[in-house]
Design goal:
The chain is mainly alpha-helical. It has five helices and no strands. The radius of gyration is 18 Å and the shape is elongated. It has one domain. Bound molecules: fe (ii) ion (2 copies). One fe (ii) ion binds next to helix 1, helix 2 and helix 5.
């Protein structure tokens, strides 16, 4: 194994580790949402939601920055036109996820400031974001495992 091969493998390992950390951040939000009754989160629990949701959003931003700037997307794009298109699609999803996360942080901050409950619609949008993100991370795991395989000479 030469140095560049080690680097790709370590990048992929780091991303897999970050995916586990993002999932932990999501679980921090879900622990609060479990306290919702009738699909609505009581006003006194709204401020409790803001902190883990903000932490999740900040974690996500750093994670996406590493994926986009750490070099792995470029390497994946070198494999084929298909993987290049997949990377472009994944990066475009980052913009969408961050916009949705920002909007949800702002919404819950404003609800907490007015001491209002979190309505079912906001909780549903948080759940939808997590579901889309799990699918996204799964697709990346598959893509990056493929990249490591190719880099180690498995594609020859
Ligand atoms: Fe991603
Ligand atoms: Fe990711």
């Amino acid at each position: 194994m030469n140095a560049p091969e080690e680097k790709i493998e370590s990048l992929a390992n780091r991303i897999a580790r970050e995916h586990r950390e993002v999932r932990q951040a999501i679980e921090g939000v879900q622990r609060v949402l479990l306290k919702a009754s009738q699909k609505e989160l009581a006003a006194e629990l709204c401020s409790e939601l803001v902190r883990p949701l903000t932490a999740f959003r900040d974690h996500l931003r750093l994670h996406f920055e590493f994926e986009e700037d750490g070099g792995i997307m470029e390497r994946a794009g070198e494999i084929s036109e298909g993987t290049k298109r997949k990377c472009e699609e994944l990066v475009a999803q980052h913009r969408d996820f961050l916009a949705r996360a920002d909007e949800l942080v702002e919404a819950t901050e404003s609800l907490a400031a007015s001491n209002s409950p979190v309505p079912a619609g906001v909780i549903a949008r948080i759940d939808q974001l997590f579901t889309s993100l799990f699918q996204h991370e799964h697709e990346e795991n598959v893509l990056f495992q493929h990249l490591v395989y190719e880099d180690l000479g498995g594609g020859d």
